[in-house]
From TrEMBL:
This is ADP-ribose pyrophosphatase. PROSITE patterns: NUDIX, NUDIX_BOX. It is an enzyme of class 3 (hydrolase). Its EC number is 3.6.1.13. Its cofactor is Mg(2+). Acts on ADP-mannose and ADP-glucose as well as ADP-ribose. Prevents glycogen biosynthesis. The reaction catalyzed by this enzyme is a limiting step of the gluconeogenic process. GO terms for biological process: nucleoside phosphate metabolic process; ribose phosphate metabolic process. Pfam families: NUDIX. Keywords: Hydrolase, Magnesium, Metal-binding.
Length: 205
């Protein structure tokens, strides 16, 4: 089969855009057409788009002790889907100011885990749900010292109530295998670290 279409910037035509809701996030409805693989422009489509700030997620890793720092907090999106909507996750935050992703990673590590990060290792940038959201996630592993890390953190004015966990990397990987850790950023970061553990430890110890 010969290739008839190579996507480019002129292959999507936004006919009109409606704002359906505006709060902390926005919901927009786009009426658009895009070129199809036949090479012809397709019919008009209507698509709702959840407009979000981009996010930063970081997995704090102690290469000397081979331990990771994870956080636990209530997540409304998990309510009614699982028995326990308190999820084990990465340190994370939104880029909602004039900040670089690395700055957000360091700020959130302090706010959510009382943790100062050293070097940051970029893992990936990805769209968690591009079928209906424009959010892009910047994912890192951050070097840390996990000795004495413990406690409850979070910003009270944002309703945050966050408990810190320090686990051996193998325990966290087992939690992925068991389904206890069931959110995308955590799974991606932990599996990446499992694949790259010796390289990371070699450079960071």
């Amino acid at each position: 089969m010969s290739e008839t279409f190579k996507p480019g910037p002129d292959d999507v035509e936004i006919l009109r855009r409606e704002q359906c809701f505006s709060g902390f996030y926005r919901l927009e409805r786009l009426h658009l057409r895009h070129r199809q693989f036949s090479g012809l422009m397709g019919a008009e489509l209507s698509r709702e788009l959840f407009v979000r700030h981009d996010a930063v997620c970081v997995l704090p890793y102690d290469p000397r002790l081979d331990r990771v720092v994870l956080i636990e907090q209530f997540r409304v999106g998990a309510l009614g889907k699982v028995d326990n909507p308190w999820l084990i996750e990465l340190v994370a935050g939104l880029i909602d100011k004039d900040e670089q992703p690395e700055e957000v990673a360091r700020r959130e590590a302090v706010e959510e885990a009382g943790l100062e990060l050293g070097a940051l290792w970029p893992v990936s940038q990805y769209f968690p749900s591009p079928g209906g959201s424009d959010e892009r996630v910047y994912l890192y592993v951050g070097r840390c010292d996990s000795e004495g890390v413990d406690g409850i953190f979070g910003l009270a004015e944002e309703g945050e109530d966050i408990r810190v966990h320090v686990w051996p990397l193998q325990q966290a990987l087992q939690a992925v295998a068991d389904g206890r850790i069931d959110n995308a950023a955590s799974i991606i970061a932990l599996q990446w670290l499992a694949l790259n553990r010796e390289r990371v430890r070699g450079e960071w110890t």
